[in-house]
Amino acid sequence: MSAHVTSSPAASRPTARGGLLRHRDFRWLLSGAAVSQIGTQVTLVALPLVAVIGLHAPAFQVGLLTAAETTAFLLIGLPAGAWVDRMRRLPLLIRTDLVRAVAMGSVPLAAAFDVLTMIQLYVVALVTGVATVFFDVAHQSYLPRVLPREHLVSGNGALETARSAAQVAGPGLGGVLVQILGAPAAIVANAVSYLVSAVCLRGIRTREPRPEAVPGVSLGAQIKEGLAFVLRHPLLRMIAVSTGVANFFSAMLVSVQTVFLVRELGLPPGVLGLMLSASAVGGLTGALCAGPIARMVGQARVIWLATVVSGPFALLWPLAGRGAAAIWFAVASAAVFFGAVVYNVAQVSFRQLLCPDALLGRMNATLRFMVWGTMPLGALAGGAIAGAAGPRAAVWVCAAGFLLVPLPLLLSPLRRMRDLPDPDQDAAPPAEPDPDAADGTDPDPADGAARPPSVTT
């Protein structure tokens, strides 16, 4: 296996004049992502409100619901990457959309017959989480198949723009739907969005060859190869640690924010949705600005700089109060989301450029396991702290935790770099030797493992 990035069919085709939206397959991919993200954001408001208002769940049970949504990344994140690398990614994306549509559709159906319980919400959250693991890993691994490599940063920026736009419109729409129809009925929007996403994905013409089976290579060996690729690379390793810390405290916030905004700040569902929509304006702005900022300050420097500048704004979350003082929650979220999106566009694009195509699923799954696996732990911690000391105390802990996010990045070679290295060039010095490499399952640098990049000042 070559250490260079494997070319995909898309890499040999020029993008049509007029920008990415003239690229037919990317347009379908983007459309599906945009629609499903709007539905997901509606559910971000509606599903906790089903528990808080409809089922009168205490804070810990609401935190447990958030944990159930992300537990799949911790349980199956690593083998999912190996499985994705053994399958064609587009059919997998369509199937997982259909699974999520059925799971979400069961909530309003059960509510209509007055048989909805917290147990069902936990099961729906877990099933949806498992499908999302496979969808997200396959989606990130499929983009380099659709777009030429020189357009990956723009492609990821467009996808982040769609996600951030959904974060602006979705929660407000969700709050209005909950106010008018009730929380269970509002979840219908998410089920429909997954169906529309599946239809959009079926419109994509780019097809992958079926991955060739490697005789004598076990699933465990393939998982280990993906782990080695990430853990032996000094930049990916620190990106994983930093993102894992951020996601731990983000999940803590998500697990308590509905309880905090409804019971501490006294916001009705419609205003709560608008509050979350207003905070997502920062994410949309970050998506639009990520490319220009990276070009101005450097694609490597922007990765750590975004977290350093935006992190301290998290301290405004627990300072929010009733009435006009609730605006501080939106201001904090807008600033933190701005930094998070700029950070994500830069680091995800780097990962896609760095990794050989045959390892993309495992690399993305390994990163997802490491950075999303912290989320159920954060959600449980948030619910436990809120249950013992109140939701405002949990928000204080979350805010303080965001100050820790930049530290791993500042201790990495990124601090001395302006731009990310060209993955097509050999890098020095070589990766540190692995004592387990002799067993034949762990690649050396010449066989596709990451080499530490040279430092650019």
Radius of gyration: 21 Å
The class by helix and strand makeup works out as mainly alpha
Low-confidence stretches: 1-18, 425-457
* Main sheet characteristics: none
Structure annotation, total helices:
16
Kindly report how far apart the N and C termini lie.
31 Å
According to DSSP, the number of beta strands is: 0
Average of per-residue pLDDT values? 78
Give the overall silhouette.
globular
- Note the beta-strand portion: under 5%
Helical percent range?
55-70%
Order of helices and strands: HHHHHHHHHHHHHHHH
Task: Explain what you see.
The chain is mainly alpha-helical and 457 residues long. 69% of the residues lie in helices and 0% in strands. It has helices at residues 24-54, 59-85, 89-112, 118-146, 152-181, 183-186, 188-202, 219-231, 234-264, 269-297, 301-310, 327-354, 360-372, 374-389, 391-401, 407-410. The longest helix is centred in the N-terminal third of the chain and has 31 residues, at 24-54. The radius of gyration is 21 Å and the shape is globular. The protein starts with 23 loop residues before the first helix and ends in a 47-residue tail after the last helix. Residues 1-18 and 425-457 have low confidence and may be disordered.
